[in-house]
């Protein structure tokens, strides 16, 4: 399957991409732990079937020091012992926020309570924006058919820690 379109190849695409990237950078610079961010983005990308984003977030997480065991188990995080309670709350939010069409209530009160138990207002804001942004990025990648496998850590510049 060949990519359909390079979204950054036009002036409009470049302008939109720059703004999209700016918002993503602001989220990455928040107090939300980088490892939590990468795990959430990886899980949403898996659910959405975005090969490029799954590749990117697996490799960026590895470059940031994430372990292979945790990366392999992120798809089955509910049935593993390697994630902390705060990470589990964030992964539940990522899943429920990604599967909005599958859940009549969206994000459950139980998940929201767990998020609020472990994260302050700024971190919770970052969590919510992160779910929205990765889902938007996944949709861009899937619609344009961006393929996974060729991403190299740091190819879009130095990511903030």
UniProtKB/TrEMBL annotation:
Residue ranges of domain Carboxymuconolactone decarboxylase-like in the record: 16-96
GO molecular function, one term: peroxiredoxin activity
InterPro entries: AhpD-like (IPR029032), AhpD_core (IPR004675), CMD-like (IPR003779)
Keywords: Oxidoreductase, Peroxidase
SUPFAM superfamilies to which the protein is assigned, alphabetical: AhpD-like
Gene3D superfamilies hit by this protein: AhpD-like
Pfam families xrefs: CMD
Signal peptide: none
Protein name (database record): AhpD family alkylhydroperoxidase
Organism: Streptomyces echinatus
């Amino acid at each position: 399957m060949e990519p359909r379109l390079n979204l950054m190849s036009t002036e409009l695409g470049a302008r939109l991409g720059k703004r999209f990237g700016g918002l993503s950078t602001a989220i990455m610079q928040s107090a939300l732990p980088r490892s939590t961010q990468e795990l959430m983005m990886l899980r949403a990308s898996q659910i959405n079937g975005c090969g490029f984003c799954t590749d990117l977030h697996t490799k960026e997480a590895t470059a940031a020091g994430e372990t292979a065991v945790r990366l392999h188990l992120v798809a089955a995080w509910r049935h593993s012992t390697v994630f902390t309670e705060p990470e589990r709350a964030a992964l539940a939010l990522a899943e429920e926020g990604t599967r909005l069409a599958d859940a009549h209530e969206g994000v459950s009160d139980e998940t929201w309570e767990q998020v609020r138990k472990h994260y302050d207002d700024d971190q919770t804001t970052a969590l919510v924006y992160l779910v929205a942004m990765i889902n938007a990025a996944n949709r861009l990648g899937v619609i344009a058919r961006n393929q996974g496998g060729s991403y190299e850590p740091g190819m879009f510049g130095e990511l903030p820690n």
